[in-house]
Fold:
Amino acid sequence: MIYVRRSAAVVLFFILLLVLSAFGLLAFRDGQFDIIAAAFGIGACVLFVTLYNVAKTVFRHIDRYVLIICIFLTGIGFIMQYRLNPEYALRQIIMFAIGIVALFIAIAAVKKAGNFGKWNYIFMAGVLGLLLLSLLFARVIGGARNWVQILGMSMQPSEFAKVLFIVTAAYFFSNKNRIASILPFLLFSAACILVLVLSKDLGAAILYALTTLVMFFAGTGRALLTLAGMGILSAGAYASYRLFPHVKTRVDIWQNPWVAERTEGYQIVQALMAIASGSLFGMGLGLGSPASIPASYTDFIFAGLCEEFGIIAGVAVILFYLLFVLRGALIALNARTLFHQLLVFGCTAMLCLQCFVIIAGVIKMIPLTGITLPFISYGGSSMVSCMALVGIIEGVAVKNGEYDEKKIESIGGAVL
Amino acid sequence: MTDARKNIRFLIFVFVLLFAAMIFYLVYAITVYGERWFASPNNPRIGSVKGDVQAGTINDRNGEKLAWSNGEDREYSSDSSLRESVSHVVGDPYGMTRGAESFYAKYLYGFAEDAVERISDVLVGQKRRGSDVWLTVDAKLSDSILRAMGDRKGAVVILNYKTGEVLASVSNPAFDPYKIKSYSGKTGSTALFDRATMGRYPPGSTFKVITTAAVLENPELELKFHDCLGTAEIGGKDVQCAGKTAHGEEDLEEAFYKSCNTFFATQSLQLKGELLKKEAEKFGFNDDFMFDDMVAYQSVYSKPESDIDTAWSGVGQYKDLMTPLHAAMIAGSIANKGVMMEPKFLKTAQSPTGTVLYSLQTEVYRTPVSESVAGELKKLMLGVVSKGTGSAARVGGLKVGGKTGTAEYMDDKGKKKEHAWFIGFIDDTKHPLAVAVILEGAGSGGKYAAPVAKKALDKAVDLGY
Structure:
C-alpha cells in the first residue's frame, strides 16, 4: 500500500502568476518601467518557491495547503504594500524572511518538545513580562500603548506574547489535574487582559479573551461555564464602555460614523468610501486612492484591497482565511494528544478571531478595534508572530504525519 | 485520554457561521449603501480623478444642457434665472452641495465603466471622458417656478405621482453656480442649502391629511359632533383656530374644508398619540429615506405625551417636521390610490461610447393607505380647493385637490410668524401631478402658497405633463 501526498504545486503556480502580473502592472504604473517593482515581484516569487520546496523537503509531512494559503495571503500583502509604499514592502519582505526562520524554529520545537512541561511557567512569566513591558515603556500609537523601541527597532511585544500564551493555554487546559490547573490559568489570562486594557490595546485584549474562551470550551466542553465566561466578557465590555471615554467613542462611531465624517469617524468613513468605490470588481490596481484611508497599510488594508480589487477579492480573501481555519482544524482533529489538539486549534482560532475582529471592524459590522490583518497588514511583529503560529500548526501536522507513516509502514505500506 | 474533537467540531461550525455572516454583511452593505457611501462630498476619489477625467454633461429631461465640461472648467446655462432654478438639483463640482454633481459622480466621472476599460485608458495615457446623465427635472418648469416664488424664501416640488419622477425641485434662495466659491465664507446666507430635500418645516394644517387618514382607518374613533367656538381648552391650555374664527357645528368633512383646529385637536385626543404616530410612520415619517437617487432628510414625528401636545400634534404644530419633497409624495400618494412612489431624479446615464448605464425604473416606496381610504381623502382634498381654504389653487378645467397649511413658528428674534403651505395634486390620469409649496414666514397657506401652486401646476400642464 503506497500513499502519495498530493502536491500543491499547481495552486502555487497560480499564486505566482497573480503576484508576477500584479507587480508587472505596478512596474508600469507611472508610464516608465520601474525595475524595482519587477525585481521585487520576481524576488518574492523566488522566496515563495524556495520556502515551499525547502519546507516540504526538510519536513516531509507538513500540510502543504496551510503553507500555500499563508504564501498567498503574504503575496497579496506584498502587492498592497508595494502599491501603497514600496519602502514598506521592502521592510515587509525582510520581516517575512525572519518570519520563515520563526516558522522553522516553531516546527522543530513542537516536533521535539512534547508539551513543554515546566517551560510553561517560564512562558507565562514571559507573556506577562512582555505585556508589562509595553504597558510601562511603550509609546502610544493610534491611541494604543503597544509599541516598544528595542535596539532601534519598534516592536509590539503583545504580538510575540500571543504565541507563548497559546502554548501555555494548551498546556493548562489539557492538564490531567483539571481544576487545579485551569483556575490559575484563567486568573493569569484575566491578568493579561487587564494589562492590555490598561495599555488601551483593546484589539489585543478582545483577542486574548476570546481565544481563552474558545480554548476553554475546546478543552473542557463545559458549555454553561463558557456561556458564563461570555457573560463576564460582555459585562466587562459594557463596563469599559461606561468607564472609558475612548471606548464609548468607538461604539458611537460604529453606530453612526457619518455624523463625525471629518473628525472621529473620518477613518471608518474613508474605509467605507474606499470599499464602496471599489464596488464588485474594484477600481483596478493602482487606480484607487487607498492612501486616503488613515492606517491603510496596517489595520485598514482590507478596505484598500476591496477598493482596488473589488468586493469579489475581499470575499475571496475571507474565504482563503476560512480555508486556512478549516485546514488548521483538520490538523487539530488528527492530533494524537489533547495538548496538541488544543495547541493547533488555539493557533487557528486566534488567527481566525483576529481576522474576524479586524475585517468586521473595517466594514462597520462591529465596533472597530485596531489590530492587524494576519499576513497582509504591514508590521514586522505581526508577521513574525503569525508565521510562528503557522509553524506551530505545521509542527503538529508533521507529528501527525510521522505517526501515520509509522502506522502505514507497520502494515507494510509507504508514504511518498 | 480526554478528547477535544467533539468540541472542536462544534467550534468550527461557529467559525464558519462567523465568516459567512461577515461575507453576507459585506455584500449586503455595499449593495444597499454602497452608492450613498461613494457619493459623499467628502470622498477624495471624486476630487482626485478630476484632473484625469472630463466630467460628463448633466441634461434636463428634454436634453437641455444644465452643466457641461469645457476643458478644465464647468459651464452652465447662459440664462441666469434658469441655471439658478436648477442649482440645487445640479449641485456643484466642489462638494459644497449635494446635487447631481456629487450624487451621480459615479457616472459623471466614469467610475461606472469597468476596470479593464479604465486600466487600458491609463496605459494609453488618454484623458478619459465621464458619462452623461439626464435628470427627471424640466428646466423650463423650474425656471418659471423660481420666478413665481419671487423674493419668498421656500421650496416647491412637483412630481409625477404615478412614476415618482420629480419634474421640478426648486429652493429659493438659489445660488449661481458660476459664483459658488463666493458663498462659502458668507455667514447668514442659506443659498447653498436645498430646502426642498433638506428643509424640515412644521407641517401645520397639511398634517390634517394624516390625522384624517387615521380617522378614516379607525371609523369607530371618529368625532361625530363638534361645535367650534374659535378656541377650545385642552389640558388647561387653549387651542385656537386661525383668527379665532368660530366654525360652529361641523363634522369631519366640513372641518377639513375649513381647516378647523379645535375639531382636529379634539379628534386627535380621541385617536391618541400612539395611533397618530403609527399613521405618520405609514406615510414615511421617521424613515431614513434611503432613496436611490438623492439624499433626503428625514421627516420627524415624535409621539406626544400630554393631552395638549397630542392635540397640537394632530394639527401639525407639535414637534412634527416635514420636508417639501416628502409633502409632495404624501399628496401624490392620495391621488395615486394610496400608493407612494419612490421619488426619482435620474432618468438615464449613458457612457461616451453610447452604452446605456442606467435607465429609470419606477419603484413603489410604500402604500400608506388602502385605495378606498385614499379615495375618501381625495374627495375631501378636492373639496378644499373647490369650496374650502385652497380655492386659489384652482387650475382651469382640471380637478385639483389639496390642503393648505399655516404653520406657526418663532423666528430668530422670538417673533411669532407663519409658514405658508400648500400640498396638492391634479386628479387626472393625463396630468398625474402632485405639488408641495412652502413659503417661509409668508403667512396664510391659502393666500400665499396656493396661488404659487396654481402657477406651478398651470405651467406643468402647459408643458404637457
Summary: Chain A has one domain: 2-415. Chain A touches chain B through 58 residues (CB under 8 Å). The longest strand of chain A covers residues 144-150. Residues 2-415 of chain A form one domain.
